Request: fold
Amino acid sequence: MPATTETVLGVFAHVDTTVRALEELRAKGYHDLAVYTPIPVHEIEDVLERDRPVSRVRLFTLIGGLTGTASGFLLTIWSAMQWGLITGGKPVASIPPFVVIAFELTILFGGVATLIGLVTLAGLPRFRRSPTFDRRFTNDRFGVAVHCAPERRPSVREILQSAGADEVRP
Amino acid sequence: MNDSPAASPTFADVNRDVLETLRPPGNLYFGWMCIVGLILTCGILAWTYQIYMGMGAAGKRTPQMWAMYITSFVFWIGIGHAGTLISAILYLFRARWRTSIFRAAEAMTIFAVLTAGLFPLIHAGRMWFAYFLLPYANQRYLWPNFRSPLVWDVFAISTYLSISTIFFIVGLVPDVAAMRDASTGWRSRIYAMLSLGWEGEHEQWRHYRRAYGLFAALATPLVLSVHSVVSWDFAMALVPGWHSTLFAPFFVDGAIFSGFAMVLILILPMRHFFGLSAYIHDRHLDAMGKLILVTGLVLTYFYICEAFTSWYSGDVFERASLFWKVTKSYAWALWLMYFCNCISPLILFSGRARRSPVVLYVVSILVLIGMWFERFNIIVPSLGHDFYPYTWGIYKPTIWDATIVIGSFAWFFILFLGFIKVMPSLSVVEVKETLPPPLKDAARAGHH
Reply:
């Protein structure tokens, strides 16, 4: 990345024009993009997610879920051992009923870990509005913000405009 | 399929229409709030009286130590299930008709579980000792008995409430962001805080979508487990009429059945008063009607199985319990249940009935009555007629526990009424996702 960058923002009204702009930008080697959409759009995802690994949120879920299973069994077995009272001729650490607790904690910890994963990976909460954000992006407009070297600005503007942007700034 | 040939709404229409539902409400709304608030106040006063007087005020005596409170507890937990079914299971199955109703259904789930959660506390009498239910380190080295279904219940219900709430709030974040950008002034500032600064940037969406799918995948087995665990509160006991392996699927199906009825009770007025016919079409009602019909038929099958296994078991106590339920003191409740749950949904075989809000509303009310009585019939008559004649007994509700039960409905509705005026009760993002995406070059739309 060059020492100084500028940002060009293109505002689009349509999915196909946005996709066209993104394809064009990627083909020309612009990868430092921020794309704003009111809804997740498959076509845009297809362009941006090409040759990228899937979100790491699932790793959080897996680790959280396994932690939940382990702590469910640990809590139940350990606490049963604290007062080793044999009832009904069954073992003190009787696994079948403890599966229920372990299952519930798997889901609970898995869910909480997914939430933590989402919040950290998506950078939430975000206290300061990013300069390229526009209120229309949660309504019906799509935004493509391109970070580029100052001398590249005219060519980026050209790409956005020819793809069909309603508005290009600055 | 679509009942209006008019062009489907655009993205901007969705924002506008959802914002419209959040306008300051009129007199009708405040009138309802007052009525519901009054009933809730009566419920709170009755609970206060019960705490002051003791559980005798609620008519609790042997053998029916579990009566209306546990009936209502199971009823409300069941109501919640349809919300999770719509928001998680139908999400995984990509059933697109769910998009316009799932937010209301999810809110219903949380409020229903919050209502259900009150009943064990009310039922426990000295509810300030409710923390005894949780495993916490204490000087006496005492831990909950993890072999008890009642402790499983604590874990299942609290997990259910936590996960449903997380799922609900995560779903709300982009919608609240849309409301933040569509509104102005203090309202916008509050939504800005609640939206956690969501901007809909691709980096956010890619994690969001993945996480949302995972939440749905976690909630799906959870919802099936919760009512199974609730059913084991009964099935693990030896009481005739309870001790059955049939109970887990029987309860889950009944839960979904009653939950759909409650969804209709909530969305039909919402559609009418908010003018949401552009989003909640007749085909949504049709789909809901079909689900009520199917779950109702499955439930009928379970009722037949239940009666058949009691008879076929050859167990004298099982048979006596069944005979007593069908013919004696509580027979009216049993036959009312059969009518409401087995007969009344049959009208939904007719396509016209499934598209008629009035018919659906009446059937839903009957289903809710029937499902409340189903839990009543499982709990009260079974406890009242077990192995020994000297432990038999009849339970009569008192004014206090009846008021608390009615108050719980008010508590539920006050939460829901409050919700629909402060939060988008229609998911902005998901409704937009089902609309045709805005394309400049319509000819290229074919591949979508």
About this structure: Chain A has a mean pLDDT of 89.
